[in-house]
Automatic annotation (TrEMBL), chain B:
<protein>
    <recommendedName>
        <fullName>NADH-quinone oxidoreductase subunit K</fullName>
        <ecNumber>7.1.1.-</ecNumber>
    </recommendedName>
</protein>
<feature type="transmembrane region" description="Helical">
    <location>
        <begin position="12"/>
        <end position="31"/>
    </location>
</feature>
<dbReference type="GO" id="GO:0050136">
    <property type="term" value="F:NADH dehydrogenase (quinone) (non-electrogenic) activity"/>
</dbReference>
<keyword id="KW-0520">NAD</keyword>
<keyword id="KW-0472">Membrane</keyword>
<dbReference type="InterPro" id="IPR001133">
    <property type="entry name" value="NADH_UbQ_OxRdtase_chain4L/K"/>
</dbReference>
<comment type="similarity">
    <text>Belongs to the complex I subunit 4L family.</text>
</comment>
<keyword id="KW-0813">Transport</keyword>
<keyword id="KW-0560">Oxidoreductase</keyword>
<feature type="transmembrane region" description="Helical">
    <location>
        <begin position="38"/>
        <end position="57"/>
    </location>
</feature>
<dbReference type="GO" id="GO:0048038">
    <property type="term" value="F:quinone binding"/>
</dbReference>
<keyword id="KW-1133">Transmembrane helix</keyword>
<dbReference type="GO" id="GO:0030964">
    <property type="term" value="C:NADH dehydrogenase complex"/>
</dbReference>
<keyword id="KW-0874">Quinone</keyword>
<comment type="function">
    <text>NDH-1 shuttles electrons from NADH, via FMN and iron-sulfur (Fe-S) centers, to quinones in the respiratory chain. The immediate electron acceptor for the enzyme in this species is believed to be ubiquinone. Couples the redox reaction to proton translocation (for every two electrons transferred, four hydrogen ions are translocated across the cytoplasmic membrane), and thus conserves the redox energy in a proton gradient.</text>
</comment>
<feature type="transmembrane region" description="Helical">
    <location>
        <begin position="69"/>
        <end position="93"/>
    </location>
</feature>
<dbReference type="InterPro" id="IPR039428">
    <property type="entry name" value="NUOK/Mnh_C1-like"/>
</dbReference>
Length: 688, 109
């Protein structure tokens, strides 16, 4: 297929879900079945198109780009002409990501047809799913930072709409707002980073930026600015990919419908952050990458420790997602580019599966509770489940495969990618002594196996919490079961590498070659050229270690929750504050509540006080000053000006009053005056 | 009996003095009397004092016959004026029911 056709096909892939969104939002209610078939059809078509794109792209080493001038600003002082481009970039990274996004989105569409049947806003839900898919595809396909930022925000909006799908529930609308606001914090950093780059290079295009930097042209001629730009753009990924310290929104986002959680956690939204780091990988300096690696490791550790003690089936999965995202970010940070991105792909499959599986469990639990007329019991709490294996065999077996995959048990896809990440991390530390990173990574691997099997055992094994309820639990319908089977199949190693113990020989690993760093040599990560050698040195050791740790975690969970040879309660009390901290999610929400929410409220109060007292005071002061000035001028006016006028009038009046006395009306008086006047005048004339 | 010198030969001054006395009496009547009729009579006195003056000037001055003519005119005009004035007095009486100038102070208002 010609490369121009690839561009056309990618545009079709991009706009199909948008078309579905537009049609559904306007006409969805009037369509048969409220238009779910249309949304599903558009995404399925997009999936098929992306498959074609991926195979066509992987056959050729060339990168396909196409750009259109969107807006040209001429004659900007000091810069000259600035052109903002729209464009498509298809390389192996985006081609693989396209398939991941559309595949998961398609399966989520199918699953939602069952899960949300009879929902109040059924057509709107499917419309938003389309918007979500469109936004994510935009992030994947774009060839410049500006478009990426626009689609980035669109992802934020559509996640807001979907998390708040059941907005009548206060907790759901709060979660939607929280997700949006927390993401904005990261996006603000990302925007500043983009602007640092744009102000200096006058372009948003990745290619242009990379080639400018590799030519030695640094932002503001400073190496520190380059690192700063990288870290700031990474802030966006911290928000979207729920990295520490902005991870708090993701567990709350569980308030959305479960298929949406699957979509958010597997293919869209959280994957966007990892994709961003992968896309801008050449731009990061060694310092920025170290920051990224440590953030990832810290996130993985925090989330894994919290996941151990949670009881809500979706919350456990949410924390595990954060933990796995931490892995991906860690891998990218240490330079294990292919491993990190491969984990994104494999994780997309098994985490989508886990969520859809938990959705199936919740769906069945809801139905059973409904038949019992029980509206108090929490359908998502694993303490109310147990023993579901016998009633939901399909869900159980697929869930088991996903759990094995996320725990990193051999023969699964998760083992391949996690093994590579652990190897990359250990190799990184042998080269420069950051031993904390592999230590955390291995600890998290053990914890992951433990808490995932804890979840599996509590849900599907053991004694049921309520025998009667168990008999009412039914396996989910086929439209929900089939996506689980497909995802379970995709959690097997064979799709990613023919060698179950080495991902590096697989096609995916080969396709994801680490791009060369464009930063100046002094700033480039010194470990990169020798990292692969180091990885091959430690690989066997890591493989054995990771299998031992994963199986150890698995076995420990088996002992604690299935055999009950170790009491979980005793362990919890032995752990003391560690248990409580983990149970309370290390008090992050409380901390943010105290610092940011109350801080903001306090600031509001202060500014309110300032407004009420100072600003209003100034305004009122100005008012009263004007009033008193006008009072004075009024007094002057009344007293002096009016006084003068009145005095003149009164004076004239008084004189008149006095003069009218001689106006007696008596003719004889007048005559007397006339005579005497005549006499006086005569005398005066004579005297002169 | 020997008359004092200022009486022996009557001259212009005598007439003027008499005329002045007559004028003063007339003026006094005009000013002080309340009855309009009396005021009119005072006016007649003033006119006649003027006539006396004019006639005296035509005897001792240089007015000659012109003085007599003027005096005759004055007498005629005085007669006409008296007729008009009496008509006015009658109207005043009709209107105010009195011929007392003290009561007729309409001009004051």
């Amino acid at each position: 297929m010609g490369l121009e056709n690839l561009i056309l096909l990618s545009l079709i892939t991009l706009f199909l879900p948008l078309a579905g969104f537009v049609l559904l939002i306007f006409f969805g209610k009037r369509m048969p079945r409220e238009g779910d078939w249309l949304a599903t059809a558009t995404v399925t078509a997009a999936f098929l198109a992306s498959l074609v794109i991926m195979f066509a792209k992987l056959a050729t080493p060339e990168t396909v780009t196409a750009g259109w001038n969107w807006a040209t600003f001429g004659g900007i002082p000091g810069v000259g002409e600035v052109t903002v481009e729209l464009g498509i970039l298809i390389d192996n990274l985006s081609a693989i990501m396209l398939v991941v996004v559309t595949l998961i989105s398609m399966l989520v569409h199918f699953f939602s047809m069952g899960y949300l049947e009879g929902d109040v806003r059924y057509s709107r839900y499917f419309a938003y799913l389309g918007l979500f898919t469109f936004s994510m595809l935009g992030i994947v396909l774009t060839h410049n930072l500006l478009m990426m930022y626009i689609f980035w925000e669109l992802v934020g909006v559509s996640s807001y709409l979907l998390i708040g799908h059941w907005y009548e529930k206060k907790s759901a609308s709060n979660a939607a707002i929280k997700a949006f606001v927390v993401n904005r914090v990261g996006d603000a950093g990302m925007f500043i980073g983009i602007m640092i780059i744009f102000v200096h290079f006058s372009t948003f295009s990745f290619d242009a930026i990379f080639s400018a930097v590799s030519a030695g042209n640094l932002p503001f001629e400073s190496q520190a600015w380059l690192t700063a730009a990288g870290v700031l753009i990474f802030c966006g990924a911290i928000g979207k990919s729920a990295q520490f310290p902005l991870h708090v929104w993701l567990p709350d986002a569980m308030e959305g419908p479960t298929p949406v959680s699957a979509l958010i956690h597997a293919a869209t939204m959280v994957a966007a952050g990892v994709f961003l780091v992968a896309r801008l990988f050449p731009l990061f300096t060694a310092d920025a990458l170290l920051v990224i690696a440590y953030i990832g490791a810290l996130t993985a550790l925090i989330a894994a420790t919290i996941a151990i003690t949670q009881y809500d089936i979706k919350k456990v999965l949410a924390w595990s997602t954060i933990s796995q995202l931490g892995y991906m970010i860690l891998a990218l940070g240490v330079g294990a580019y292919a491993a990190g991105f491969m984990h994104l792909v494999t994780h997309a499959a098994f985490k989508a599966g886990l969520f859809l599986g938990s959705g199936a469990v919740i769906y069945a639990m809801h139905a059973a509770l409904h038949k019992q007329h029980d509206h108090q019991t929490d359908a998502q709490d694993v303490r109310n489940m147990g023993g579901l294996r016998s009633r939901m065999p399909l869900t159980y077996w697929t869930f088991l495969i996903f759990t094995l995959a996320i725990s990193g048990i051999p023969l699964t896809s998760g083992f391949l990618s996690k093994d590579e990440i652990l190897a990359g991390t250990l190799a990184f530390s042998t080269l420069n002594g950051h031993y904390l990173l592999p230590l955390i990574a291995f600890a998290v691997a053990g914890m992951t196996a433990f808490y995932m099997f804890r979840l599996l055992i509590l849900t599907f094994h053991g004694k049921p919490a309520d025998e009667e309820r168990l008999t009412l639990v039914r396996e989910v319908p086929g439209v929900m079961g089939i996506p689980l089977v497909i995802l379970a199949a995709l959690s097997v190693f064979i799709f990613y590498s023919f060698n179950p113990f080495g991902a590096s020989s697989g096609w995916l690993f080969q396709a994801l070659e680490r791009p060369a760093s464009v930063v100046p040599e002094a700033l480039a990560p010194a470990t990169w050229p020798v990292l692969y050698e180091a990885i091959s040195r430690v690989h066997t050791l890591v493989m054995i270690l990771s299998i031992v740790i994963a199986v150890g975690g698995l076995a420990f969970a088996w002992m604690v929750y299935e055999k009950r040879s170790v009491s979980a309660d005793k362990m919890a009390s032995a752990m003391g504050w560690l248990y409580h901290g983990s149970r309370k999610k290390w008090y992050f929400d409380e901390m943010y509540e105290a610092v940011f929410v109350n801080g903001t409220l306090g600031l509001t109060r202060i500014s309110n006080w300032f407004d009420m007292n100072i600003v209003d005071g100034i305004v009122n002061g100005a008012g009263s000053v004007t009033r008193s000035v006008s009072k004075i001028s009024g007094w002057i006016d009344n007293t002096f000006v009016d006084g003068l006028v009145n005095f003149l009038a009164n004076f004239t009046g008084a004189i008149g009053m006095r003069l009218r006395k001689i106006q007696t009306g008596s003719i004889q008086n007048y005559l007397v005056f006339a005579v005497f006047g005549f006499l006086i005048i005569t005398i005066l004339i004579l005297a002169i | 009996m020997v008359l004092p010198e200022w009486l022996a030969e009557p001259g212009l001054n005598h007439f003027l003095v008499v005329s002045a006395i007559l004028f003063s009496l007339g003026l006094l009547a005009v000013i002080s009397r309340r009855n309009i009729i009396m005021i009119l009579m005072g006016i007649e006195l003033i006119l006649n004092s003027a006539n006396l003056n004019i006639v005296a000037f035509s005897r001792y001055g240089m007015l000659d016959l012109d003085g007599h003519m003027i005096a005759l005119f004055v007498i005629i005009i005085a007669a006409a004026e008296a007729a008009v004035a009496l008509a006015i007095v009658l109207n005043i009486y009709n209107r105010f029911g009195s011929v007392d100038v003290e009561h007729i102070t309409e001009l004051k208002e």
